[in-house]
Amino acid sequence: MGKISETYRGELIRSMEYLAKDKKTIFLGQSVLYSGNAIYNTLETIESSRKIEMPVFEDVQMGLSIGMAMNGYIPVSCYPRFDFLILAMNQLFNHLDKMQFMSKGQFKPRVIIRTSIGSKKPLNGGVQHTQDYTSVFKSISTELDIVLLNKKNEIFPAYKKALTRKDSRSTLLIEHGDYYNKK
Amino acid sequence: MELSLTDKKKEIDKLINFELKVKKVYESGLIKAPIHLSGGNETHLIKIFSKIKKTDWVFSTWRNHYHALLHGIPEKWLYDEIVDGRSMGIISKKHNFYSSAIVAGILPIALGVAMTNKRNNTDQEVWVFIGDMTYETGVFHEVYKYSKNNKLRMKFVVEDNDLSTNSPTGKTWIKKTKPYKDIIYYKYKRKFPHHGTGNWILF
Question: N or C end of chain B: which has fewer CB within 10 A?
Fold first, then answer.
């Protein structure tokens, strides 16, 4: 769909527009409807009716994303920083990551999770806003697919796979905040 | 629909006998996983489930056998799941039934189902059964507040036996939160231990 964009951020926007073409997707999280972080800038072209601004309750947000997926929707659950996603690890690993196994395949909730390693340039957000926990998450996941988006041309195929994969596994896609304006 | 006294007695016997059957097989050493037997709350649950439609969603905990039976899950299927070691996490998509062995874990998931029910404009209720320790958690209060403010079809049922495993909820918190007026709250005395049957078993 469409032409590859010039920047990392452009590819994220193209990917979000692609996801939005599926009527089952719904975008939720902090700063999806209101400005405040980099992810917001990649969702500006998505219709407001498809976005739900969430209170700050990370674990509940992950759980409700699971519930929505169990009932036929495809939530795109956004966590502005990896450091914040840690607060949702209970629902992520005790529930979503075990759901197909626990239910013997009865429930296959497809949740697409977005997060970002906080940028260090031009301002360094410090140790609580810039961590990369990719290897930690990979080491404890069983059903969840975890993808670190290192290059611009990896972004669109990764989101396309997350939306269409036949095994219906959920995907965590990790962005680099510092790459947004890179080509 | 309220049951007649005779039917109620039959239903109570059915629940009790099911758990006694599970108790017996557990004590034979066949089940290689924890079981959490229900007991002492039959009358409360039969009354509550008389209001639950078969198409409604029911979310339960590790102590879920009574909830599952009363929501229409066949006895044999449930029994086989328990014998296979899945007592703590009975799940049946066909019956809109989900349970979890993580304290408060079901609450946010139930919230998500209720949100989509509202978007789909269905009249399905989402029933969430929790214990009194879960009622005191921050997660409960976040989910309760969000569901009320969004006018979601969710019903919260607190089953208060004043114990979380064997820790007394009232003593750990010093003081328990008063039941909100719009939730169902009942007290009962646990008939069986937290898990197992109370008897020594050699596996």
Answer: N
